[in-house]
Amino acid sequence: MSEPYSLLILPGDGIGPEVMAEVVKVIDWFQANRGLNFDVSHDLVGGAAYDAHGVPLADDTMARAQAADAVLLGAVGGPKYDQLDFSVKPERGLLRLRKEMDLFANLRPAQCFDALADFSSLKRDVVAGLDILIVRELTSGVYFGEPRGIHSDDNNPENEGGRVGINTQRYTSGEIRRVARAAFELAKRRGNKVCSMEKANVMESGILWREEVQWVHDNEYPDVELTHMYADNGAMQLVRRPQQFDVIVTDNLFGDILSDAAAMLTGSLGMLPSASLGAPMANGRPKALYEPVHGSAPDIAGQGKANPIACILSFAMALRYSFDQGDAAAELEQAVEKVLADGVRTPDLMGAQGGIQVSTAQMGDKIIAA
Ligand code: ATP
Ligand code: MG
């Protein structure tokens, strides 16, 4: 058997452990039936880690995440932890993982399964078969740029209220090039098309963004089709004719907004996977964290109602991007597609058309059977 892939599983809080239990079944299936060899370990993050260690991510867990080929995370947080001090809030565990692993490329696919096309905010014919990937820069830009803060504006008597709030959009050429490279690499494995979005018409960082993405294209990926679009037009095009896109690469702020808009093209929050990738490790694999887009959903936790598909599709992304098992990833995605086509639905997917309602665990079992 080949070298095992090391996988650190951090189920977290709320529905996190429930959906992760279904992923573990899927992993076991691939080990038993497809000869894949995983070295799986489990650890705590978020509120679960706070309860055990008084911190949302223990140093030891951080070290294990750094050493793993891939980290798979469920969700963190819940009302039980709302009163905690900011420094130990469950979300801080996730932020620490992202920051210390330097995960600069956030991948959010927006894929519309035909059986769920009526869940979209758009008409069926606009979204059926949709398959786009938004690559959002995750570690820089206006969320981190200095100077920042809320200051008094004493020297300006004209300013009613007397305060000023400041954030700085700052990008280096190196930060832009590395996320552009990630986008071009992904496009090569998909539709070979990248659309870069910024506001070069009003922002210097946008001009630099456009120039550096073009530079990476011209020097390293001349065979991938590259277009540029102002982000406001991009938002419009995304809801007007989303099928025109393959890979979209954009900055932290625009990516935050555009990926949420794209998510609603496909329907339920319970269906959306994500990946966050960093620089390649010694073995050539990128540092990687995979997680569903949804949160811990405390309102339905512990009731067997959670849809495990977002987490299962996040594992499919791990198969593809960390372990180079594209065939296994496609097999898993096709199983999900088949189960949906058969009308199998967790409660969140019970729309106007109805269907065969199943629990979290039954959905996992159906996907494995498929
Ligand atoms: P967070 O702050 O962690 O993002 P949140 O409560 O703001 O948490 P989510 O946890 O993402 O947001 O969930 C919003 C709502 O969507 C939930 O209350 C739940 O009803 C629904 N939901 C989210 N994920 C799922 C899922 N996997 N299956 C079914 N319903 C879900
Ligand atoms: Mg939320």
Automatic annotation (TrEMBL):
<comment type="similarity">
    <text>Belongs to the isocitrate and isopropylmalate dehydrogenases family. LeuB type 1 subfamily.</text>
</comment>
<dbReference type="InterPro" id="IPR024084">
    <property type="entry name" value="IsoPropMal-DH-like_dom"/>
</dbReference>
<keyword id="KW-0479">Metal-binding</keyword>
<feature type="binding site">
    <location>
        <position position="256"/>
    </location>
    <ligand>
        <name>Mg(2+)</name>
    </ligand>
</feature>
<feature type="binding site">
    <location>
        <position position="108"/>
    </location>
    <ligand>
        <name>substrate</name>
    </ligand>
</feature>
<keyword id="KW-0520">NAD</keyword>
<feature type="binding site">
    <location>
        <position position="232"/>
    </location>
    <ligand>
        <name>substrate</name>
    </ligand>
</feature>
<feature type="binding site">
    <location>
        <position position="260"/>
    </location>
    <ligand>
        <name>Mg(2+)</name>
    </ligand>
</feature>
<feature type="binding site">
    <location>
        <position position="136"/>
    </location>
    <ligand>
        <name>substrate</name>
    </ligand>
</feature>
<feature type="binding site">
    <location>
        <position position="98"/>
    </location>
    <ligand>
        <name>substrate</name>
    </ligand>
</feature>
<dbReference type="GO" id="GO:0003862">
    <property type="term" value="F:3-isopropylmalate dehydrogenase activity"/>
</dbReference>
<feature type="binding site">
    <location>
        <begin position="78"/>
        <end position="91"/>
    </location>
    <ligand>
        <name>NAD(+)</name>
    </ligand>
</feature>
<feature type="binding site">
    <location>
        <position position="232"/>
    </location>
    <ligand>
        <name>Mg(2+)</name>
    </ligand>
</feature>
<feature type="site" description="Important for catalysis">
    <location>
        <position position="199"/>
    </location>
</feature>
<feature type="domain" description="Isopropylmalate dehydrogenase-like">
    <location>
        <begin position="6"/>
        <end position="367"/>
    </location>
</feature>
<comment type="pathway">
    <text>Amino-acid biosynthesis; L-leucine biosynthesis; L-leucine from 3-methyl-2-oxobutanoate: step 3/4.</text>
</comment>
<keyword id="KW-0100">Branched-chain amino acid biosynthesis</keyword>
<comment type="function">
    <text>Catalyzes the oxidation of 3-carboxy-2-hydroxy-4-methylpentanoate (3-isopropylmalate) to 3-carboxy-4-methyl-2-oxopentanoate. The product decarboxylates to 4-methyl-2 oxopentanoate.</text>
</comment>
<keyword id="KW-0464">Manganese</keyword>
<keyword id="KW-0963">Cytoplasm</keyword>
<dbReference type="Pfam" id="PF00180">
    <property type="entry name" value="Iso_dh"/>
</dbReference>
<protein>
    <recommendedName>
        <fullName>3-isopropylmalate dehydrogenase</fullName>
        <ecNumber>1.1.1.85</ecNumber>
    </recommendedName>
</protein>
<dbReference type="InterPro" id="IPR019818">
    <property type="entry name" value="IsoCit/isopropylmalate_DH_CS"/>
</dbReference>
<keyword id="KW-0432">Leucine biosynthesis</keyword>
<keyword id="KW-0560">Oxidoreductase</keyword>
<keyword id="KW-0028">Amino-acid biosynthesis</keyword>
<feature type="binding site">
    <location>
        <begin position="295"/>
        <end position="307"/>
    </location>
    <ligand>
        <name>NAD(+)</name>
    </ligand>
</feature>
<feature type="site" description="Important for catalysis">
    <location>
        <position position="143"/>
    </location>
</feature>
<dbReference type="InterPro" id="IPR004429">
    <property type="entry name" value="Isopropylmalate_DH"/>
</dbReference>
<comment type="subunit">
    <text>Homodimer.</text>
</comment>
<keyword id="KW-0460">Magnesium</keyword>
